[in-house]
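[job 0412] stage=complex_fold ligand=iron/sulfur cluster status=START
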Amino acid sequence: MAVIDISGYAPNSITDGPGLRFGVFCQGCNHHCPGCHNPETHEFGIGTKVDVEDIYKMIKKDPIVRGVTFSGGEPFDQAEGFYHLAKLLKADGYELAAYSGYTYEQLTRSTEDYKYKLLSLLDILVDGPFVLAKRSLSAGFRGSTNQRVLNVPASLANGKATWEESARWQTLNTERE
Ligand code: SF4
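[job 0412] stage=complex_fold status=DONE, emitting structure tokens
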């Protein structure tokens, strides 16, 4: 089974999306956004390598949690491992969200790539790098206003990035580019 290099977990998160969620944070990120809140997660290979089955079992322990958010670090730099984890969780009906420094357009360049395969299992993608000059208190679940909260199934069906419009995800999310 696949492994993910993990930097940490947030088993009862209320800041990585709406409702009570399980946050899975990976180690390693190529984007190096100035002002990143998690610079300790940038270096690759220094986290804890965990089998995706074990992460899945950890998430399943709390029946109240119905949403899972992948973050980091950059989840799409470990797309194969997160893809296998997403498959297990999707089969159980979890709402899956991911943060990425890549844009939706970058992630959809190749349907052969694990980045695309992971994307195709998500409900929500918060995309794009964190831009310090665009940090805003009205960014909702985003860090900066250049980022988008995308409905992934709708985006794939429409063939273009499509915002998630539900109130759950859009609370405070007033500034868009
Ligand atoms: S993509 Fe996220 S984790 Fe990576 S440098 Fe940017 S803000 Fe930090």
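The two ends are 40 Å apart (CA to CA).
[job 0412] exit 0
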